[in-house]
Amino acid sequence: MSFAVIVTFKIHSADMAAFMPLMVKQAKTSLELEPACHVFEIWQHTDDENTVKLYEVYDDADAFKTHLESAHFKEFDQIVAPMIAHKDVTLLNRKIELD
User: Fold this and answer.
1) I need a labelling partner for 9 at 20 to 30 A (CA). Which of 25, 35, 77, 84 fits?
2) Residue 90 in 3-state DSSP?
3) At what angle are helices 16-33 and 71-80 packed, to 10 degrees?
4) Quick one: which of 60, 65, 54 has its CA closest to 28?
5) What pLDDT band is residue 17 in, cutting at 50, 70 and 90?
6) Cα–Cα distance measured from residue 52 to residue 30, given in angstroms and rounded to the nearest whole number
7) What tens digit of pLDDT does each residue of 38-48 get?
8) Interatomic CA distance for residues 87 and 92, integer angstroms
């Protein structure tokens, strides 16, 4: 595991109730169907419930690319696109492994 992704979503407040179950389903599906996806956590900002962060860990960048090309991601992405006011994606390579 050497590749992490942090996604920050700002969700329209009227869409939060619909967004979160879809996000949970996406996380569970990714972990179940993608052997190279090891972590898929959903975090909600303490001061702004409409800000959601994902922390995902994959074997490598190719595994994340496979995730983006998966049918379940494409379906999720299409459904939630109108719910998202803003989205930021940060890609991280681990350079130092701690024992």
Assistant:
1) 35
2) strand
3) 170
4) 54
5) very high
6) 17
7) 999 999 999 99
8) 17
**How long, in residues, is the chain?**
99
Tokens 């956590």, located at residue:
41
For 11, counting Cβ atoms within 10 Å of its Cβ (0-12 exposed, 13-18 middle, 19+ buried), the class is buried
CA distance 19 to 13: 10
Query: What is the β-pairing status of strands 3-11 and 51-58?
Result: antiparallel
- pLDDT, one tens digit per residue, over 65-94 is 999 999 999 999 999 999 999 999 999 998
Tokens of residue 85, six digits:
């006011």
Handedness of CA 24, 54, 67, 3 (dihedral sign): negative
Say what the pTM is.
Answer: 0.91
